[in-house]
Write a structure and sequence with these properties.
Mean pLDDT: 84
Low-confidence stretches: 1-30
Radius of gyration: 51 Å
Number of helices: 14
Largest sheet: 4 strands, antiparallel
Shape: rod-shaped
């Protein structure tokens, strides 16, 4: 049991330790970092800034869609106001206030005058009877005048109270309300806006997919470019060793008098050409690795090794894929984006059409004021509930909405034409890339066949040269043919890989 546990720990260390060193110890492993095509893709997707921007835009579009959904729901808002005015609102004029303040005086005067007139018109017999009762007309008038005076004071006080009751004191006014509004029918504009928000989110997703496939396409091209130059570097090194050895043999033959100095100079030129070719390949390899590191988010001077560098055969001949334009039309995110544009312009037309349709909304709320008017003018906060229906019916706008709708329909027609043109371009692209894959496979088959002929030609030339029956020029021609055959094989293999990548991208299946 103990041994079994030890074996489990050893197995865990065996599989986890390389991953840990590769991921968490860059200072020790970066010197010889091994990269596969998949790892390069993962790093490129993580490092690409434009892809990050597209993902952020996708999140923004999702929030816009959620915001559009809220237009279906009731909205509640609160409003509060305060206003100070230099003069209060007056419900009574100055003349009316004066009349009310003097209400008792005027009434008492009128009563006094009427009483005096009445007393003067009484018959003498009635006055004599009053005198027999001990009441004189003067005493009666004096007593009545005192009553009228008291009555006037009372009525004046009442009039003053009425004036004060009508004093609004509205120099300091407070008001507040809580309002609820629920759209019932907005002419279809809310539905269209929500569909536009959905399309915006879909467009952001398709844009992200375009960025992703573009990133994968670029990283694949950079990866296979490095692999191609690494194989050509080894080929250049092998060719340089070959011509150097041949140069040494020719100079030995010159020393022995078997070959001429002209032969030696010709071989020296080939050596120089081989060294120059190797230098160009080395420089190109360094720059290509810098580009690959930049796309992967690694330091430009990072020393990396690709998994396909040391493979003998970079690619093999595969069956020609079937032409599938329908798959490309269905999968290409560019076409989806153009279709989204068409649908977006249609929904924009629906929003504009809503401008000519009636709009209905339900409103309700609670409002408070100070001063309040529900129990006279009071310096108190009092409120009331309210419910209503708002209806807006457009009658005449001089054709403004009609012109906008026509312009929006023109935008839809343009988007449809662009979509049709893109479909034709993608169909041509798929046909071209399918043909290119077939052509690359044929070139690879011919290059592989030429390798065998070039190897045999070089072997025969070297054997004849050692036997002295073939000149150095013939050997150099055989070496050049061998170099060309090897280089064409590398180019054909890389062309097979890149043509497959191009076809996958044109079909929209680059994963």
């Amino acid at each position: 049991m103990k041994r079994k546990g030890i074996r489990m720990v050893k197995g865990w260390v065996k599989w986890f330790l390389p991953f840990y060193l590769f991921t968490f110890l860059p200072s020790t492993m970066d010197a010889q970092r091994l990269l596969t095509l998949d790892s390069c893709r993962v790093m490129a997707l993580r490092n690409n800034k434009q892809l990050g921007v597209s993902k952020l835009k996708q999140e923004m579009a999702a929030n816009v869609r959620k915001s559009a959904r809220t237009k279906y729901l009731p909205h509640v808002s609160a409003i509060g106001t305060y206003q100070f005015t230099s003069e209060p609102i007056s419900l009574l004029s100055n003349d009316q206030k004066t009349a009310l303040n003097n209400l008792g005086t005027v009434a008492a005067g009128n009563l006094q005058q009427g009483f005096t007139t009445t007393m003067s018109q009484l018959p003498p017999q009635f006055l004599q009877s009053l005198g027999a009762m001990g009441l004189s007309p003067e005493g009666i008038q004096q007593l009545a005048g005192q009553g009228f005076t008291d009555l006037g004071k009372t009525l004046n006080a009442i009039g003053q109270e009425i004036v004060e009751a009508f004093d609004t004191d509205t120099r300091n006014m407070f008001a507040g309300s809580v309002m609820l509004s629920q759209p019932i029918f907005m002419g279809g504009s809310i539905i269209a806006m929500n569909k536009m928000a959905d399309l915006g989110e879909e467009m952001a997703s398709n844009t992200t997919e375009v960025r992703r496939q573009s990133t994968l396409y670029n990283i694949d091209k950079a990866y296979w470019q490095v692999v191609s130059l690494r194989h050509k570097q080894r080929l250049a090194e092998s060719y340089l060793e070959l011509v150097k050895k041949f140069d040494a043999d020719v100079h030995k033959m010159i020393d022995e008098g078997v070959a001429t100095k002209s032969d030696g100079l010709s071989v020296d030129v080939k050596v120089n050409e081989a060294e120059m070719t190797l230098t160009k390949v080395n420089d190109g390899l360094v720059l290509s690795k810098m580009l690959l590191c930049q796309l992967c988010g690694l330091p430009l001077n990072e020393s990396v090794t690709l998994a396909d560098e040391n493979q003998e055969n970079i690619a093999v001949v595969e069956l020609t894929p079937e032409l599938n334009v329908e798959q490309a039309v269905e999968n290409r995110p560019e076409l989806k984006l153009l279709q989204n544009s068409v649908d977006l312009t249609r929904q924009a037309t629906n929003v504009l059409k809503a401008g000519n349709l009636p709009q209905v909304a339900l409103t309700g709320g609670y409002a408070v004021t100070n001063p309040s008017l529900f129990n006279g003018f009071e310096r108190k906060f009092r409120g009331f509930w309210n419910v209503g229906v708002l209806v807006r019916v457009p009658i005449w706008n001089w054709g403004d909405v009609m012109y906008k709708v026509r312009a929006s329909k023109g935008a839809t027609a343009i988007a449809n034409l662009e979509l049709a043109e893109a479909r034709e371009s993608i169909e041509l692209q798929v046909n071209q890339n399918t043909f290119r894959v077939d052509e690359a496979n044929k070139k690879l088959s011919m290059a592989q066949a030429n390798i065998a002929h070039a190897d045999e030609n070089l072997r025969t030339a070297n054997l004849g040269f050692r036997e002295g029956v073939i000149s150095p020029t013939t050997v150099m021609e055989a070496q050049t043919a061998w170099l060309q055959a090897q280089s064409q094989k590398i180019d054909a293999e890389i062309d097979v890989r890149l043509s497959q990548v191009d076809l996958q991208k044109s079909l929209g299946v680059l994963e």
